[in-house]
Design goal:
Layout (H helix, E strand, L loop, with lengths): L5 H16 L8 H11 L22 H11 L7 E5 L5 H10 L2 E6 L2 H13 L6 E5 L12 E7 L8 H11 E14 L24 H10 L2 E8 L1 H17 L11 H4 L3 H13 L3 E10 L3
Parallel strand pairs: 1-2, 1-4, 2-3, 4-5
Antiparallel strand pairs: 5-7, 6-7
Helix pairs in contact: 3-4, 8-10
The structure holds S-adenosylmethionine.
S-adenosylmethionine binds next to α1, α4 and β2.
Length: 295
């Protein structure tokens, strides 16, 4: 089974941590930076609501609307135990807890995101339904058969070892368990991506695979498709609207923190490049539900 050698694995983790949570020159952590930004916007950083934090906890195209659409596509009926793979700052984990009553464990290799996810869940009163672990998706410290659903939004495109990760999902899911995916895949245009994009400043953290390869990897890992949709058009429309807003926005007094506090000052360029890559057919967006064939 393909896996990462230990030194390659730690390179992968180092590169992702550097991409997502590069310390600024002053050494301030992401957690301190975001807490300070909420305080500066007149909010108590320990008492926040899900609307306040939507600018920093939805690191995927389509925001909360896309997560709700995926939950509907996957027919979540409430109360499932969910593993949120590559959970980032934990936005989907909290949405599934707050709106579907799910008990969610989020796992992410970017340590600074895991710290932020724990803080945001405590600040929004969702700490009892959401738990966060700092680990590689290929080796999650949870017992076999501990979740009914694996949820993954915009994270596989950062992973060089997808077959290893899918094998881990098989281990963690109960028989008949489901995988709900909302992923960035390579499009038919083979030209190089315009960089930076939100998941990669250079090709080092970019591991896009095309839809056929991802579907084949899922089949080989023992997952059957229940419903798969290409949602590129909706994603592009959402990105265009956001790029317009981001380019028009100057500094606004008391404004709530947004993704530029995570990604840095090149976030507007990342969004514009993602829009261009979508328009040029270099990337596409997929949403789908698979079920393990183990009964
Ligand atoms: C674009 S962010 C998406 C975060 C979140 N899913 C969301 O939609 O808000 C991709 C996330 O995947 C995480 N990630 C990438 N490779 C990973 C791996 N091998 N194991 C765990 N997390 C990983 C990154 O650290 C990052 O938080």
């Amino acid at each position: 089974m393909p896996s990462l050698k230990p030194d390659t694995a730690s390179d992968h983790i180092r590169q992702l941590n550097a991409h997502y949570a590069a310390e600024k020159a002053d050494g301030e952590t992401l957690l301190a930076r975001l807490r300070g930004a909420f305080a500066a916007a007149g909010r108590d950083p320990d008492r926040l609501n899900l609307d306040d934090i939507a600018g920093i906890d939805q690191l995927h195209l389509g925001g909360r609307r896309a997560s709700r659409a995926l939950a509907e596509l996957g027919a979540l009926n409430g109360g499932e135990r969910v593993l949120d793979v590559g959970c980032g700052t934990g936005g989907a984990s909290r949405l599934l807890a707050a709106e579907y009553g799910c008990e969610v464990t989020g796992v992410d290799v970017t340590a600074a995101f895991v710290d932020v996810a724990g803080w945001l869940s405590a600040a929004t009163g969702l700490a009892s339904l959401t738990h966060f672990l700092c680990a590689d998706a290929g080796q999650v410290p949870l017992p076999a058969g501990s979740v009914e659903v694996v949820w993954c939004q915009h994270a596989l495109m950062n992973m060089p070892h997808v077959p290893r990760v899918l094998a881990e999902w098989q281990r963690l899911l109960v028989p008949g368990g489901r995988v709900l995916l909302h992923e960035v895949v390579a499009g038919d245009n083979p030209e190089p991506l315009t960089l930076p994009v939100p998941w990669a400043r250079t090709s080092v953290t970019n591991h896009l695979r095309d839809r056929r390869r991802l579907e084949r990897d899922l089949a080989l890992a023992g997952f059957e498709p229940l419903r798969v949709e290409d949602v590129t058009e909706e994603a592009l429309a959402w990105r265009q609207a956001h790029s317009q807003r981001e380019q028009a926005a100057g500094p606004v007094a008391n404004s709530l923190p947004g993704p530029n506090l995570i990604f840095g000052s090149d976030f507007v360029q990342m969004g514009r490049n993602l829009q261009d890559n979508l328009t040029a057919g270099k990337v596409r967006i997929l949403a789908g539900v698979w079920r393990t064939t183990r009964r």
